[in-house]
Write the structure tokens for this entry.
Amino acid sequence: MDTRFYRQNAPWLAAAALMTFSSSFGQTFFISLSAGGVRDAFGLSDGDWGGIYTVATLSSALVLSQVGKLADRMALVPLILATAVVYVAAMGTVALAPTALVLGLGVFGLRLAGQGMMSHLGMTATARWFRANRGRAVAVAVLGFPLGEAMLPPLAVLVMAGLGWRATWGVAALVFAIAMLPAILALARGGRTPQGEGDASRAAGMDGRHWRQGEVLRHWSFWALLPGVLAPAFIGTVIFFHQVHVAETRDWALTTMALGYPMYAATSVALSLATGAVIDRLGPVRLLPIFLLPIAAAILMLTLEGGEGVWLVTLLGIGVSQGVVVTMLGALWPALYGTRHIGGVKALTVSATVIATAVGPGITGLMIDRGYALGDQAPAMAVWCLAASALFAAVAPRLAVRLAPPAPA
């Protein structure tokens, strides 16, 4: 394998990967580890906690759809700093929250600054910094997601066992502020102009145009793609958010379940890197009809009887789809809509993803409260994935003929 691309662009690739990694503290898989302590501290049911999470996340999505546009107008480093201030404040709020209302405000900040802006900034910067090799660049940038999912849950479980869930959030704030943020700023300073790839601001999308946010919203392609591309976010969030519930209802050990995250991450990383190379050769549109099939099979695993091995296989299938989807979507939106206004376009897609991750825990939490375990809800999610795959098979050829010619490698 030719490693020159990775060696020559290591600072920018590392900066983007660190941004996606640092979004972990605002991701569902990390927040949900505190679910047991939160419910006990504030006397909440699964539905109550899911409702707080849903309201906070939906609110953050609405704000993100507008704040995300700042990536088109504001320099990257100052925007990272502003996001970091909100992020650290949110972690501190969760750690010290005296009431469920204050806790909800902290979760809002985590979702806005963490899952929302840190992910958004990492992926937007990558879309601008690279063009002909965008698939491989995105594949590296998104590695921060599975690495965070692999490394942080086992560590957080250990810290919580010794210090409690509140102190764990204080530790998270210190780790981000002292270690992650300075590294991101040092690596991202100066940015990158693609060499031999043309001006990244002029990498056009469908019909050779640069699409604005409003134009994307009015075009059929966005709404045809949206239900399917949101399925992995919805399903993955539901699985991670209710992992404590799954452990309690299936009599599984949470510490054993947490060991599945490294396997999940390794699978996601391998598929992400492989997908990046495929995208650079074939384009992202050709993957649309197939990327949801593994996650459909994975979620159905929860309908089976068995021990923690069922959970591990479920994570494996989700890792396959997530590895493909995060790389594919990172390349798909700039390919379809161009890069000049990609901050505004990605703000739409990230906001929609945040909404999906908000609705998932709320709906499934209410269903759990009414006696429907997560395994009982799994078939409906699998049908969603299969229906979306059929739609993508019909839509993909129409999109392919409208794409601008690919840049020379």
Remarks:
- The radius of gyration is 20 Å.
